[in-house]
């Protein structure tokens, strides 16, 4: 129920209020090509949103690549890291953090405008052990699906929950160039696409 050294993407610090959140780690040894391991971040995001839709009638959104949002405010995040890729059975660690019981007073400063919790957005009573069980079931089901049939259906589901689609953003390209344009979803590899003012697509 608390992280003392939580971190997010790019080693950013994850702030954890004691006894107010759910923080769970999954160790997965998926029957996938190693180059597909990074796609499991998006897979987990889809699984989490499906879980809340199915069990709590809550429609959440996803911000590429690993954030979970509701009403324009961050509800949680996902961090995926690969283990020893040279091992006989390489694994992936998927960490999930969700704000559950925070009140508005638990968010200080600018976080009041940027973060939210399940308590603030829903009248549901969230029992953390039950929530973890449901999340675990949904995540393993979604991963099993992509192992069996590929990522296409999962990525279609992700696109339906994409909070950046059609918004102006700035992207640093593979060539390390800053590009401004409209977010237009993800490609078949799960990479964010942006279209500049000349209609050129970048990733």
Features:
disordered N terminus; 9 strands; five-stranded antiparallel β-sheet; alpha+beta; 26% strand
Structural summary, described in words:
This protein is an alpha+beta fold and 203 residues long. Helix content is 28%, strand content 26%. The protein has 5 helices and 9 strands, in the order βαββββααααββββ. The chain has a 5-stranded antiparallel β-sheet with strand order 1-5-4-3-2. A 4-stranded antiparallel β-sheet has the order 6-7-8-9, with no helix packed on it. β7 and β8 form a beta hairpin. α1 crosses α5. The radius of gyration is 17 Å and the shape is globular. 27% of the residues are buried.
Fold topology:
Blueprint lengths: L20 E8 L11 H17 L4 E3 L3 E4 L2 E10 L9 E8 L11 H4 L3 H4 L6 H22 L2 H9 L7 E5 L5 E9 L5 E4 L5 E2 L1
Antiparallel strand pairs: 1-5, 2-3, 3-4, 4-5, 6-7, 7-8, 8-9
Helix pairs in contact: 1-4, 1-5
Short note summarizing the structure:
The chain is built from five helices and nine strands, in the order βαββββααααββββ. It is an alpha+beta fold. The strands form two sheets. It has a five-stranded antiparallel β-sheet with strand order 1-5-4-3-2.
